[in-house]
Amino acid sequence: MTHFLSQVPTYLPILMQGVYLTLLVTLGAFVLATVLGLVWAFMRVSGIAPLAWTARTIIVVVRGIPGIVTLFYIYFVLPDLGLSLSAVQAAIIGLGIAYSPYMAEVFRAGIEAIDRGQTEAALSIGMGWDLLMRRVVLPQAIRVALPPYGSTMVMLLKDSSLASTITVAELSLQGKLLASSTFENTTIFTLVALIYLAMSLPLTAFNAWLERRMRQAR
Amino acid sequence: MSIIELRNIRKSFGTVEVIHDVSFSVEKGEVVCIIGPSGSGKSTLLRCINGLETYQGGEITVHGERVDTGSSRIRQVRARVAMVFQRFNLFPHRTALENVAEGPIFVKKEPREEVLARSRELLTRVGLGAKIDAYPAQLSGGQQQRVAIARALGMKPDAILFDEPTSALDPELVGEVLAVMRSLADEGMTMVVVTHEMGFAREVADRVLFLDGGVLVEQGPPDEVLSRPQHPRTQDFLRRILPS
Ligand SMILES: Nc1ncnc2c1ncn2[C@@H]1O[C@H](COP(=O)(O)OP(=O)(O)OP(=O)(O)O)[C@@H](O)[C@H]1O
Ligand SMILES: [Mg+2]
Q1: Predicted ipTM?
Q2: Residue to substitute in B9, B13, B46, B49 for testing ligand 1 pocket (most ligand atoms within 8 angstroms of CB)
Q3: pTM strictly above 0.90
């Protein structure tokens, strides 16, 4: 234990470089997955058959491919097609795409949980589709979708370690590199695990708090 | 000119026709009550009038304008015919005041302060001056339905459609909602009311329509239709629901 503590000042700064990339990839992919997920979800609930069908197909296809393969595809195959991305860009885009079906399902479940009477009341005061969504359905759907949305972010934080497979020196890869050069496996991987926990626990707590608050607001 | 006019309306769900060739019109300031057994198509008919349902045959017009759910004008048409639902359908995430102000501010783009002032007056008028900032969940059913009526009024509609507005209420709360509706009728609001409240129909309606199996069986002034129904199906229906 004292050995562990004495080593922390040495390794922590190096690992923090990995933390920066982990956060960057997580947040970037989270934003992209949210945007794409919203698009798929809106297409599915649009009532326009070709849109709904397209979204459903995208969701099935993307969900049927392991995230790691999506990453490889974007990082290694796209350059052959003339589109080169940095490893970090590829990680963000790949994870964003890989996570978009989960987001879509979270949003769709939220939207569909809203009573039909709400839609009818909105239509009967002359709202069109965008006002109906913006003013009536989404504010209520968010309450339903927020808890699973938050857990998706925690999952994504952990899965950002997949970016290491395409050379992004995020926290897990940084830890592995450091361990293989110092042989301090126990210290370093314990530290890595603690840092992941330190990032995910506050998120989890924040989610729980938001969920409580949303429920009280009704 | 009639405010609402239905000519030979036919409506089907899939292959099942549930409204058969129904025609009637509603004049300005008129209160029309629609009665009939469960499943006779009363709600469906109302929902066709403000375009919540499509219809397959005939034509519905509001102020001469065709109600067509496929048309880009449907939103304007809907905004002119307000609807009060059996289950209130208030927006649960908005206060009473916000529920009333929502349509005028966001749909009709009226000046916010003006709308809020008018919405307060409307809530006071339905007896909820003290509940302006309450959320629907904090209100009784009767209070919620009165907010819903204020919401309908906030749109300054040409007519209000009521679909069994008191059926979801505890018996002791029915009176307060009917009282508000009665005062609207007295002020000359054009109303189409689907109801099982025969007392209300008798006292307030200018005309009563009896619908059975999607057919408009009989219509006329309340004391004729309710007291001296001509058609055996009307007689039979009234015998069953009116304690004699
Ligand atoms: N969305 C729907 N899909 C299929 N059939 C429907 C739908 N809505 C209503 N119907 C059918 O249409 C007929 C008329 O229903 P409607 O709800 O208009 O009757 P109602 O007179 O309002 O009855 P109630 O007094 O029970 O409210 C019924 O046979 C009903 O089963
Ligand atoms: Mg009904």
Answers
A1: 0.93
A2: B13
A3: no
